[in-house]
Write a structure and sequence with these properties.
The protein has 122 residues and is mainly beta. Helices cover 3% and strands 50% of the residues. Strands 2, 4, 5, 6, 9, 10 and 11 form a 7-stranded mixed beta sheet that branches. The longest helix has 4 residues. The N and C termini lie far apart (40 Å).
Length: 122
């Protein structure tokens, strides 16, 4: 069992930056693949980024490549999403996710956080 708690969301102007954090509890954090998803108003939840055990493998949806960076700290049991050059289209609730499968963490993760709101004004 893994518990996920996101933080770091808020209001930011277009072109600005935010860093989201996802603190985890439970055992064996380093065994889990971690991901971020987002859901904008009236839209389906979508995959944003994922990271492998050691952090060497990462994956991003095309719309955030070059602007967002996912990372993890296996000592602090925390995963991060650094978001730069934010755009109004990035406005959404952002969810942290975890799974033992890299395939599933990018599609239908087993564990989810409660979400944190990110709002980008133009």
């Amino acid at each position: 069992q893994v518990q996920l708690v996101e933080s770091g969301g808020g209001l930011q102007q277009a072109g600005g930056s935010l860093r989201l954090s996802c603190a985890t509890s439970g055992r064996s954090f380093s065994r889990y693949y971690m991901g971020w998803f987002r859901q904008a108003p009236g839209k389906e939840r979508e995959f944003v980024a994922a990271i492998g055990w050691s952090g060497e493998s990462t994956d991003y949806t095309d719309s955030v490549k070059g602007r967002f960076t996912i990372s993890r700290d296996n000592v602090k049991n925390t995963v991060y999403l650094q978001m730069n050059n934010l755009k109004p289209d990035d406005t959404a609730v952002y969810y942290c996710a975890a799974d033992l499968s890299y395939y599933l963490v990018r599609r239908t993760p087993t564990y989810w956080g409660q979400g944190t709101q990110v709002t980008v004004s133009s």
